[in-house]
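idk why but the lab printer keeps eating my pages so im just putting this in chat instead. protein + zinc ion:
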Amino acid sequence: MELTYFGKKIVVFVLLLGGTTSAAWARFKIPPPCKNAFSTQQEETEGAKYAGEIFKQMPVLPDSSPISQYVQQVGKKLVAVTPGYRWPYNFHVVASDEINAFALPGGAMFVNVGAIRAAETESQLAGVMAHELSHVVMRHSTCNMTKQQSVGTWAALGQLGAAIALGNGALGSLASQGIGIATGLSFLRMSRDYEKQADLLGADILYDAGYDPRGLPQFFETIEAKYGQGGAQIFSDHPNPGNRMEYVNAEIASLPRKSNPTVTTAAFTRARDLANKEKTYTSKEMEAGAWKKSGKYALVAGGPATVIPETTGSSQTQNQTQAAGAARLSRASLGIDDPLVFYNGQAFSISYPKSWRKGEGQNGSVAFVPQDGASQAGIAYGAIVEGARFQAPVKNANDLQQATTAIARQMSQQNDGMTVSGNMQSTTVNGRPAATVELRGRSPLSSGGTATPERDLLVAISRPDGAVNYIIFVSPEPDYATLKPLFARMMGSFRVR
Ligand code: ZN
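predcted complex ->
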């Protein structure tokens, strides 16, 4: 994870990704694979589980729909020329009015009706699909997951939480990330580097499939012009790297000119007419779930239109649903009167309440959570200890403040609705300079459909080696005052090594 802050580059413990390849304009070369914690087999099986969950949570048109059939035909043309590992690609259409398309790890792609309506030509629609395929080819989702769990980003907290909740310690398993769409598929959020890579490979795929490769940047340009960066859902996962048109056009200019590339087809016009007539749902309506009773949508890939059961099928999913609905803990379960036990980590030690559970991440990160204080949706109660190393060592109070601000900012970026609240305070933790700041957000707990507010305390401690350890104390707002003395005791026990 790299972020630039006050002109300073921050590199959190391990850099897993190289930068963008920006060789001379030749056909885009797929960069060396990122460090990936998942085997292709895992990516397929776990990706298929996610896909199964999409069918339960979104109105997916059955394959019998002519719109689905059309999208599958376009998909087939693209897959025929898609390089790399032969993922079991499959294509589906979601009756959503949002302009979006997404591909899950393992190769299931979902194109929203809204995206078909927004495309002006078949090459534009194929363009966004080729872009999505390219993310699958380069395994960007599982690279993101690997990065998230190594960096110990906020997104990975849910993962740690899930591992603790499920007691399997399986941080490496996709399934432990929590499958609920409500919690967001944060691994689909692409960096600008990944976006550029997907644009360039996508343009090549489009070209090889016989399409006018300009369709790809055109699609993004068109919807950006019409709806703005904030107006189309696709931009939240696929941010514009800034000069998309320029670099894609440069890539295209490097390809031998073809005489009659496909710009659009009569089949596209027919499919778009049908898309315009197709009933679609807003995100709210999808969540409300009334569409499930309509019997118009498929429950499984390739399955018929069917009434979708409200309670989902497998026992595994039921467990996950239960886990996702973590409840507020009683005062007794918080462990505030427990004796503390000593944890000796790789680079630090800390004491935590005896009844709490611990979950260890990669790179020495650790989460401590009360029994039932975490679920698939994330950690509702507890403390997470992480390390961060910055390009310039943290040497003084000013550096530490900047580092703390950057960490807080990263937390807000990775967590919808999380904001810094209050001022940063300077302090010391066992003689080491430290800074604290509070954040507010939405707790994974919910009561009656509304999220409980969350209050977090971020404590950053400067290490003698110029790196920073930070502790995030997490609590639902109503329990914060009760937990605060315990948090203070834990903080007081923290020692860097
Ligand atoms: Zn993208």
